[in-house]
Amino acid sequence: MRTDIASQPLTIFRKDYIAPGFWVDTVEMGFDLDPIATHVATRMTMRRNHDSSEKNLVLFGETIKLLQLRMNGVNLKKSAYSIADGKLTILNAPDVVTLEIETVIAAGKNTSMSGLYVSNGNFFTQCEAEGFRKITYYPDRPDVMGTFTIMLRGDKKKYPVLLSNGNLIAEGDLGDGRHYATWEDPFKKPSYLFALVAGKLVCQEEKYKLKSGRKVLLQVWVEAGNLDKTQHAMDSLKNSIRWDEERFGLELDLDRFMIVATSDFNMGAMENKGLNIFNTKYVLANPSIATDVDYAGIESVVGHEYFHNWTGNRVTCRDWFQLSLKEGLTVFRDQEFSADLVGTETGRAVKRIEDVRVLRQVQFSEDAGPMAHPVRPDSFVEINNFYTVTIYEKGAEVVRMYYTLLGHDGFRKGMDLYFKRHDGQAVACDDFRAAMADSSGHDLAQFERWYSQAGTPRVKAETSYDADAKIYQITLSQTCPDTPGQSKKLPFHIPVAIGLLGADGKDLKLQLEGQTTTSNNTLVLELTAESQTFRFTGITQKPTPSILRNFSAPVVLEYAYTDEELGHLLANDSDPFNRWEAGQRLATRRLVKLTNAVQKGEELELDAMFIEALRATLNDTTLDPSFREVVLTLPSEAMIAEEFAVVDPQSIHTARQFVRASLAQHLKSDLLSAYENNLTPGKYSPDAVSAAKRGLKNVALAYLLAWPDDATFMLAKTQFDEAQNMTDRLAALSGLSNFSGSAKNTKAAAQSLQKFYKDFKNEALVIDKWFMLQASAYTCDVAKVRELMKHSAFTLSNPNRARSLIFNFCNANPARFHAADGSGYALWAELVIALNKLNPQVAARLARSLDRWKKYPQNLQAHMKAALQKVAETKKLSKDVLEVVSKALAS
Ligand code: B3K
Ligand code: ZN
Question: Which domain does 850 fall in, by range?
């Protein structure tokens, strides 16, 4: 092993924050666009921050060529400044400075998709977190905010559209085949919100009237040929604008708001001021290419980026350790937006269930691994590695806990105060907490630990009932496992929403001993000590507790429920989340037991109680189809894995497949009726009611194919052949491609897969689905992935395509990825190394697939360690990948 990997890149610590030595007031930039050499001329006015201990003028710059540097009209000699480690330092700068900087960028060669880059001949930027320094030397940190005026110049034919932030204030011909456009953003902003787009694009546009009566221009820009796929994004944008006005009293502050789609993008989308840049995946939709899930994804991402305009842009982050200040809050807002749009109580609950599933599956796992970090991290090597589920999804749970503790109106008051205090500022997570505390009078001092302590708390509940005294007592105790660098955890402030069900399934009236608070259904207990006992009075029968309703805190709840109690909750709980949760607990219990049985080679059996409980739910037509769908969906293999100290992916897969097949066998006629009763004939509509029906119908179909015969095969085949929308077509194809039955049917399934490719070969987003579907099918082993990598449509350099095949195989096909011979890990290492050269951010994401290597049996661990070491020893490893693999190896 090479020893020089010890030369670790610099770790940045939150405690080292110092305010910038200089503020920026105005920034003017001129871009001469050319993929080989884009010239950028920047003029900025700066003034000393007398409150800072930093006396030098510090600018950041990476991968750019510096042509010229002038200060207050004078060319700076090389001796007047130094450049080292991406920092340009000017010593002895006066208090008031005008800097003029000329830089050159080779955008056409930029495969990192950070900074200025070219995609399909068009220019795009991505500046968050630290991409602006790849454009010019600049104090590229979020607490430095300036007003930007941008002039873009470029060839009229190649770049007919020239866009940047804010308002278009001038445009015209330059007479030499080029033209220009000047954009002015009236709001001061940090450099990470800068954006430009230039190229051949077309738009759908609309004038939209705000509640105040002011009219704004909304545009969705795409490549020619995609204008038939922009309506849903436009509708989602209008819904977002309206929702933020209604729910939070926040108005769009610009006259013009643009969304631009590109197929080359590292993540979902970016909230640049007035010029959101999106991955095509979160813009383009019509019934023939997009599924219900895609439609919902577009709505929530369009909402998310739009909501950032206030939570992120108007009030931004002081430093990147505060990232969750904007991300956690904005995820909470987009979750609420989607839930409000569905409208019904069940719809809200199903949305909540889907969000919690992601949290548990991905964030709880992150919290238990080598990359675990607090919602407000203390250190990082590469900030791009910290755009994590902890910052986003756990961050949103933290915001939701304020909402649970303060109530709907209390939370709104807190938000109002937050904007009143901090509009136009770059602030910290503590400022948000202070606004919530000060507006409500609620003591939130201890709540700070949600920001500073990593790890998923475990809450244990114990209950007892005293029939004579009519007292029901519940003791809640909390612990939190060690995480890297943190071993002693102090108690969290945990809201635990609780209800008590009587024998008739109805909620009992709740009265806490010694308190005036009563409730007809749910009370929020505040657990602040390591252990606390709560006593309910006037309880005339031994109840079934429904604890942590609506998942009121991001914790693992341990309570020794009997199967009967879970059955009672599944059938009756007035809290739909816990109703679902009861079903999941029943399922998990069985899946764990069966996995153990698989390992011991014992006979597998599924009990009647569980089958009957699911049958009752499936057939209960008073329940919303979307709710029946989520109850019927078993915990994923990854979720089941979390139940084990040592994970055996193959046995988990076998056990889960056995449960699916058994359910299909016993519920066959019920599944067939659910299928028949939830058809959605006629024109496709992505609305919640139709989507819910399709969801239930397609879950029924997937089950039917787990215990297949010729008739169910034909059902899927016919659905595939005759589908009028992508939701039904893809669901059928997924069933067919996981099909294991007669040779004749298997062949027909393979033909359907080929036909799908042929029919959609010009729709990149559909071809991503084609790869994704194959990569996550159990039939796909390492050799099959290698074969698919040779397909003419495969490329590593497009992030969506790389994710569709490679990430799906490594993350969504555990039984194959963790092949006993280590071939999955060898493939992983090869691809992390290949991606590292192209795109460090994407490479580092893939690198995370081996985070939990210590959870696997010894033989697999040995293979994983070798793969991790292979990556760690690679020359020219980016700090992105190095941080991930070294943390994994050190665990
Ligand atoms: N703020 C961006 C994410 C930027 C990621 C940089 N590596 C998108 C979002 O959260 O809305
Ligand atoms: Zn965001």
Answer: 761-891
